Amino acid sequence: MRVNQESEKLTLYPYLDVELVPKMLVSAESLSKLFDVTRGTIRLWAKNGDMPSPHKISGTSRWDADEIRDWIRAGCPERDGETNETEQA
To answer: What's the pTM value of the predicted model, to 2 decimals?
Structure first.
């Protein structure tokens, strides 16, 4: 299969850099590959407010790729306004 050179783009994370679809949702599986962690870790980070929350679609969790990109560019800060559910002693 030949790829149009105009649309060909070298990138480390091609599943987060699709330009044909301006807003794309990605799975925990895709994010786990991006961060080199398990899917369970991705879900835990989201639950604890350490990363953007997913959107629920028909019982599945999907993250907004643009929101993830922005969060990474900002240095992966803890999310403002989201509760951190870790126990406080």
So the answer is: 0.65
